[in-house]
Amino acid sequence: MKEDKPLVLIVDDNTTNIDLLVNTLNKEYRLGIAKNGFRALDYVKKQLPDLILLDVMMPEMNGYQVCSHLKANPRSKEIPIIFITAMSDTENITKGFSVGAVDYITKPFHAAEVKARVNTHLSIKKMREELNNQNIVLERKVEEKTIQIRQMLEATIQATVLTAETRDPYTAGHQQRVSKYACIIAEKMQMTSDEIQSIRFAGTLHDIGKIRVPVSILNRPGKLLKEEFDLIKTHSNVGYDIVKDIPTPWKLGQIVLQHHERLDGSGYPNGIKADEILPETKIISVIDVIEAMSSHRPYRAALGITIALEEIQKNRGLKYDASVVDVCLEYFTEHPELV
Ligand SMILES: [Fe+2]
Ligand SMILES: [Fe+2]
């Protein structure tokens, strides 16, 4: 008997019926036999049949009860069950369907009918399995492609940022560090993986607009003139223009545009307040301040992490989101080295 033949379990307490069914099906199928409901459930625990022929009238546990048990178990619920019944009245047939049977055969049965029904339901089961497998393969392909596209997007953004940073060596690595620490804080704040992704990309790009600020201003030592600072402040809008049309599911343009906004409306470019600022931006803007203050700039020496943390603590709930500040203070007190 070939292993690749479908396995049909016959559940019946009547030996004559069993013999008839065995004679009808044994050439085309592997057969299992259970003489009552309990044995049928035991059989299925050990080996999953492809289809079950289930007698309705059995002592102790009838066919409906066996069927209900099998359908309640995720492991066996997909097995097609055909009831074998002497009762052809509508009520009993309906009851069989309501507990999960796919079909019924009435006794006395004809060999050709039994074969045809078994064949049909095994074919349907096979098609359904193939469809499920195809769906699994397709889902995997979509997942792989999504990862690939995300990696390509990440690599493209990195290349763009590295190119931009060659003009501004003092802030080289600033955006990557902001991205990295903003993601750490977002994770600690239990933001969704989608929000964390948007923070990763927006953090990496947030100062991209500085590409339009003349190198002579970006690299000039000493305190900046007001006009020079005004020119630097345009980088939020310029960054928005660069990023806004990148087709992603995230609000990268808005986050870049808002990254110098403050809760009290004292930020730029639009002086928006509190809830007008996106949650992702609230994290990036605090990390941006910490990273910038901790690092060396052409116009000043590094102020260090302690002063940076004092700044965010002083303005907790005023300029900076209180819960972001709390998580940052806890994290950076434990990890004072920005790597
Ligand atoms: Fe900036
Ligand atoms: Fe920045």
Structure description:
With 339 residues, this protein is an alpha/beta fold. It folds into two domains: 7-136, Response regulator (Rossmann fold); 166-334, Hypothetical protein af1432 (Orthogonal Bundle), CATH 1.10.3210.10. It is built from 14 helices and five strands. The chain has a five-stranded parallel beta sheet with strand order 2-1-3-4-5, sandwiched between helices. Helix 6 packs antiparallel against helix 7. The model has no long low-confidence stretch (mean pLDDT 91). Bound molecules: fe (ii) ion (2 copies). One fe (ii) ion is lined by residues 174, 178, 206-207, 288, 292.
What is this structure, in a nutshell?
The protein is an alpha/beta fold and 339 residues long. 56% of the residues lie in helices and 7% in strands.
Defining traits:
Hypothetical protein af1432; 7% strand; alpha/beta; 2 domains; binds fe (ii) ion; five-stranded parallel beta sheet; Rossmann fold
Beta-strand percentage? 5-15%
Q: How many strands, what sense, and barrel or not for the largest sheet?
A: 5 strands, parallel
Report the CATH architecture of the largest domain.
Orthogonal Bundle
| Low-pLDDT residue intervals, each spanning 5 or more residues | none
DSSP strand count: 5
Number of domains: 2
Mean pLDDT: 91
CATH class of the largest domain: Mainly Alpha
- Work out the helix count: 14
Order of helices and strands: EHEHEHEHEHHHHHHHHHH
Q: How far do the termini sit from each other?
A: 67 Å
User: What structural category arises from helix and sheet content?
Assistant: alpha/beta
Listed once per kind, the bound small molecules are: fe (ii) ion
State the assembly state of the protein chains: single chain
CATH-defined topology of the largest domain? Hypothetical protein af1432
